[in-house]
Amino acid sequence: MSVLMIPLEEGEPWPTLGPAVCAQIETELVFGPGDLRGSRAVLDPEKRALIYSFYEVYPQGSKDANGKIIEGRRRFRRCCWSAQKGSAKTELAAWVAACAVGVMVVGLPVRSA
């Protein structure tokens, strides 16, 4: 069974790998077929905020219910985003996937950080 969960703002923001992912997208990737084909990727504030949320990690000293250390692990195993037609959903998914598998990352893929 699927459950829709929208995280609440809890005061202190969670640590995130989002800035690194956004920087990689905007420096290394381009738009696909369409009017913007070949243009550098540009993230609007909404997409940037989504990526920051998608890549939140547990802060230092975090432990799960069993006492296992989980600091630095991703907060969410799966993320979902729904948007209207023409909002570059496919491009965003491809850009995030390219970063997740470390296609052109200098150093380590984002998933291992």
Characterization of this structure:
- The protein is mainly alpha-helical.
- The protein is built from 3 helices and no strands.
- The longest helix is centred in the last third of the chain and has 13 residues, at 89-101.
- It is elongated and about 50 Å long.
Key attributes of the depicted protein:
113 residues; mainly alpha; elongated
Silhouette: elongated
The proportion of residues in beta strands is: under 5%
Gyration radius (Cα, Å) is: 15 Å
Q: Give the count of helical stretches.
A: 3
State the separation between the terminal residues, measured CA to CA.
Answer: 30 Å
Low-confidence blocks of residues: 105-110
- The secondary-structure element order is HHH
Helix/strand structural class:
mainly alpha
Quick check: average pLDDT? 81
The percentage helix is 25-40%
What is the total tally of β strands? 0
Q: Could you describe the largest sheet, including whether it forms a barrel? A: none
Short description:
This protein is mostly helical. 30% of the residues lie in helices and 0% in strands.
Question: What layout of secondary structure does this protein have?
Answer:
Layout: H1 18-28, H2 45-54, H3 89-101
Helix pairs in contact: 1-2
